[in-house]
DNA sequence: CCGTATCCACACCGATACTG
DNA sequence: CAGTATCGGTGTGGATACGG
């Protein structure tokens, strides 16, 4: 997903248009990997950058760094630099604001879990029905 | 917003990978206008296509039709053709499954509402902080 | 009234490489 | 170890037009 929702919402807020509450929230975790980052940091505590890389092996180095930066800009995560040694490590953790998103993320997890179970049970080709042409 | 999350999730499910519950849910309402469509249909009942157009004046004719088709494919909305007269009208409404998403959408509304109030009160340039370069 | 096709601009994201 | 720049493929969404 794209980040266009996020940029559009930012523009609307700059224009004084606050009639985008749902989109504003969506923009917080819209974008590839963001939901997973928030979920991991929320349920398992803080992680170093390279640990997040290991948790999300399909995420490219560049995109992971970019998404973390955006989450930090949105005040959802904290970034702490540990400069003790030859190598610098950076630890990420959820802010209280980021933690306040967890009920929504968890609700999304539960909804998806239940829906996937239903589809599996009824064997409807996993429910990804195509409209008849 | 894009639909890449939706397509990616569909592919993962086809591959037998069900470890994407949160992304699966996100894919339901990710994509421009979808959250608003669900919200309107959920809180105000069914609408004709042209009524939705009026409710979402910035959505192009093409994209609105496309998103409605996707929502229908995902079994979130029903589509009913009323062919009484020279002009055909099409009514859209939420399915029970679509209605089951409302608690999440409403939670997103509430989160965004509260967050925007906080930012307004504290006047932090509406919180869209930029990371120092 | 509603759906879809075409064309086009642009944003995203991956691969790669360079920096500190 | 972590962040950023560049290049390129691809998907998304707007304008427009045509078909049912």
UniProtKB/TrEMBL annotation, chains A, B:
PROSITE patterns: HTH_HXLR
Domain of life, per lineage: Bacteria
Molecular function as annotated in GO: DNA binding
Domain HTH hxlR-type: 20-120
The keyword DNA-binding is assigned to this record: yes
Coiled-coil parts of chain: none
Pfam families according to UniProt: HxlR
Residues spanning the signal sequence: none
Keyword terms: DNA-binding, Transcription, Transcription regulation
Protein name as annotated: Transcriptional regulator
Organism of derivation: Levilactobacillus suantsaiihabitans
């Amino acid at each position: 997903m794209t980040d266009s929702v996020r940029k559009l919402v930012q523009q609307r807020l700059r224009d004084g248009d606050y009639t985008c509450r749902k989109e504003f929230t969506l923009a917080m975790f819209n974008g590839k990997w963001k939901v997973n980052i928030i979920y991991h940091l929320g349920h398992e505590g803080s992680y170093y950058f390279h640990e997040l890389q290991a948790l999300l092996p399909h995420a490219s180095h560049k995109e992971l760094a970019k998404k973390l930066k955006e989450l930090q800009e949105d005040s959802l995560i904290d970034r702490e630099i540990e400069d003790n040694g030859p190598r610098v490590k950076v630890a990420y953790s959820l802010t209280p604001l980021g933690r306040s998103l967890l009920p929504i993320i968890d609700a999304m997890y539960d909804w998806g879990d239940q829906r996937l179970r239903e589809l599996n049970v009824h064997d409807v080709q996993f429910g990804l029905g195509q409209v008849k042409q």
